[in-house]
Amino acid sequence: MTEQLSKEERVKYRIEGEFCANCSAKMERMLSATEGIGETTINYAIKTVFLPPSRVVQAQDIMERIEAGVTLVPIQTKQKVATPDNTAAAAKENKRRLTRIMIAGVLFAVGLVFESRWKNSSWEIIEYLVNLTAYFIVGYKVLAKAVRNLFRGQLFDENFLMSLATVGAIAIHALPEAVAVMLFYSVGEYLEERAVNRSRHSIQALLNFRPEYANLVHQLDVLKVDPEEVQVGQQILVRPGEKVPLDGEIVNGSSFVDTSALTGESVPRKVQVGNTVLAGMINTTGVLTVRVTKVFAESSVQKILDLVENASTHKATTEKFITTFARYYTPAVVVVALGIALVPPLLSGGNFQDWLYRALTILVISCPCALVISVPLGYFGGIGGASRHGILIKGANYLEALTDLRTVVFDKTGTLTEGVFQVVEISPAKGYTKQELIEIAARAEAHSPHPIAKSIREKYGKVLKDSDLTGLLSYEEVSGQGIRAIFNGKTVLVGKAELLEQAGILTPRLTVAKGLGTEVYISVNGDYVGQLIISDRVKPDSRAAIAGLNQMGLKTVMLTGDNPAVAKAVAEELALSEYYSDLMPEDKVAWLETFSQAKGQGKVAFVGDGINDAPVLTRADVGIAMGGLGSDAAIEAADVVIMEDQPGKLLEAIHIARYTKKIIWQNIGFALGVKLLVILLATFGLANMWVAIFADEGVALLAIMNAMRVRWYNSPKNSLPEASLVRTVKVAAR
């Protein structure tokens, strides 16, 4: 029963109410440990969580025990992340908070100015009155939470520790310090929330390229409807300046469309009748009539939204380490503070009040929020930044893995080469004409989606209708080798020489000029009838992309099912480290496992077109689908999807990943360094509570602002160097 519940389909919920990053980590930990809920990740950046509907009441109770006032609200597909009412309420609450902070600030300043006159005089009661008023104005919520959490046994809650530190300061008559801690804690919390919200809004802006309406063509009228109401086969009108609301095929009109929201490519693309347009593109000039080919839930834009928004469910190793570290950091600091308060006075007879003040100072910096906020925010910013460049990364773990790559393995066709084939030579055997040979091949390849099959049908030049295929009795794709078909009672083989030779048919192999062509052999009823030569072109930026990877010190490998001559020519042209040819799909998986198991090779990425490379993409440490725009197979199978058909985008993905990791480790080093330094200084009486509050709230704020830089990172302009030297290429034919 428990296993059934844990596998129950999860629904997305928005978490409303105020809670800090450390509380988010606690909620996540308790939810994951609860029977029936199982492994759960809270997306703190946009305050969402996926939960089994049957366990929502239980989850609500768990979360409210940690942070009172938080509520779970189910998110419908049509809903915005924040409704206008919620936004207005949040703005009003922020205004009230700012007013309280300003009033407390004025009182605090007055207390400082007159402190020397009031202390140890008949006016001392006014000192208490002014300072305590300021203290309670900004600290009453913290105190209330502390009392509630105390009864719940949460002794290491930051509210309780902050209250303990400030109440202790008041008890030893350090009134200005107590007020300063609570005031600057409130200011820090306010600024932190503003910074996180700014990052959240930039993320939502990315997600808000979701089209809001569709112009449905209904008889002689055009109706404005929600995109989710439009069905496959219906027609929609897209006017200039409007977003394309659903994936479809243009049936009337021509225009230029802006694809930057999907691909990061700023140059508009020309589209006309017969072309495919995708949801999220912006029509810039003409009016388009589009026949819908996918419902909105299956459209490219919705898949992208889901990927970007839910990427936080896959945590990086660094993020997991920081979450675990935070669990032990606060108790450890509290133990240190307790030891400092009790041990020195008991052993050396020192001033108890002095050592207590030092301990209270250390308590102020016991909250690990700077780390708990900035690390996931940094990864989320990196994922968002990559999506601006047309690179979809499914999780922080894959973003981190891109920084540890040592080997990049490429498929050839459609990845390094354009995958646009042309039949350049037709060589029929005696008794057959060129037209007869191409007709036999085209009819046998009538149902194949492979680019080579498409090029054969295009060379045939006639559209094959159902009436032309009535004699096709059997059709079978032989994986990695070709087609076996029975047509008008005759067995036709079209494919590699091995396919024919396995059937006992001799194939007079021809020498392909320069090795830049693929040989397709054809037989009918056991007799060899001819051969086709089909050529492919290397993509314009493949050479520069490989050169960039080589300069990074990465090993570049090509795996292909093509013949050794073609593979060698492409490998030498691109300066690849190694290549392996004549491979079946299962051979590619075997080679990938070999690279993965090799000592010192690091992580291995496989880059393919995402259509017929799913097994290898899945097996790689990082599966990268090239040219995934509109490809369901690419988006499903890969860990990283490069929307444009450009190998150079892989370099951008690695640059963004490395920059993100650099920022995150800057935050970790800075936050830990400052906190440990202040703890050390406070231990020797060289740091007071003013310094401690900076070490807590100031460091957290700086870490958040630093993490936000990742979102707007631009890759170096020289990330695509020209390959000037051809490296030694290892030839390995299967």
From TrEMBL:
<feature type="transmembrane region" description="Helical">
    <location>
        <begin position="690"/>
        <end position="708"/>
    </location>
</feature>
<keyword id="KW-0472">Membrane</keyword>
<dbReference type="GO" id="GO:0005524">
    <property type="term" value="F:ATP binding"/>
</dbReference>
<dbReference type="GO" id="GO:0005886">
    <property type="term" value="C:plasma membrane"/>
</dbReference>
<dbReference type="Pfam" id="PF00702">
    <property type="entry name" value="Hydrolase"/>
</dbReference>
<dbReference type="InterPro" id="IPR059000">
    <property type="entry name" value="ATPase_P-type_domA"/>
</dbReference>
<dbReference type="InterPro" id="IPR001757">
    <property type="entry name" value="P_typ_ATPase"/>
</dbReference>
<feature type="transmembrane region" description="Helical">
    <location>
        <begin position="359"/>
        <end position="380"/>
    </location>
</feature>
<dbReference type="InterPro" id="IPR051014">
    <property type="entry name" value="Cation_Transport_ATPase_IB"/>
</dbReference>
<dbReference type="InterPro" id="IPR044492">
    <property type="entry name" value="P_typ_ATPase_HD_dom"/>
</dbReference>
<feature type="domain" description="P-type ATPase A">
    <location>
        <begin position="211"/>
        <end position="309"/>
    </location>
</feature>
<keyword id="KW-0812">Transmembrane</keyword>
<keyword id="KW-1278">Translocase</keyword>
<feature type="transmembrane region" description="Helical">
    <location>
        <begin position="664"/>
        <end position="684"/>
    </location>
</feature>
<dbReference type="Pfam" id="PF00122">
    <property type="entry name" value="E1-E2_ATPase"/>
</dbReference>
<protein>
    <recommendedName>
        <fullName>Cd(2+)-exporting ATPase</fullName>
        <ecNumber>7.2.2.21</ecNumber>
    </recommendedName>
</protein>
<dbReference type="InterPro" id="IPR018303">
    <property type="entry name" value="ATPase_P-typ_P_site"/>
</dbReference>
<dbReference type="InterPro" id="IPR023299">
    <property type="entry name" value="ATPase_P-typ_cyto_dom_N"/>
</dbReference>
<keyword id="KW-1003">Cell membrane</keyword>
<keyword id="KW-0104">Cadmium</keyword>
<keyword id="KW-0067">ATP-binding</keyword>
<dbReference type="GO" id="GO:0046872">
    <property type="term" value="F:metal ion binding"/>
</dbReference>
<keyword id="KW-1133">Transmembrane helix</keyword>
<feature type="transmembrane region" description="Helical">
    <location>
        <begin position="98"/>
        <end position="114"/>
    </location>
</feature>
<dbReference type="InterPro" id="IPR036412">
    <property type="entry name" value="HAD-like_sf"/>
</dbReference>
<dbReference type="InterPro" id="IPR023214">
    <property type="entry name" value="HAD_sf"/>
</dbReference>
<dbReference type="InterPro" id="IPR008250">
    <property type="entry name" value="ATPase_P-typ_transduc_dom_A_sf"/>
</dbReference>
<dbReference type="InterPro" id="IPR023298">
    <property type="entry name" value="ATPase_P-typ_TM_dom_sf"/>
</dbReference>
<dbReference type="InterPro" id="IPR036163">
    <property type="entry name" value="HMA_dom_sf"/>
</dbReference>
<keyword id="KW-0547">Nucleotide-binding</keyword>
<comment type="similarity">
    <text>Belongs to the cation transport ATPase (P-type) (TC 3.A.3) family. Type IB subfamily.</text>
</comment>
<dbReference type="GO" id="GO:0008551">
    <property type="term" value="F:P-type cadmium transporter activity"/>
</dbReference>
<dbReference type="InterPro" id="IPR006121">
    <property type="entry name" value="HMA_dom"/>
</dbReference>
<feature type="transmembrane region" description="Helical">
    <location>
        <begin position="328"/>
        <end position="347"/>
    </location>
</feature>
<dbReference type="GO" id="GO:0016887">
    <property type="term" value="F:ATP hydrolysis activity"/>
</dbReference>
<keyword id="KW-0479">Metal-binding</keyword>
<dbReference type="InterPro" id="IPR027256">
    <property type="entry name" value="P-typ_ATPase_IB"/>
</dbReference>
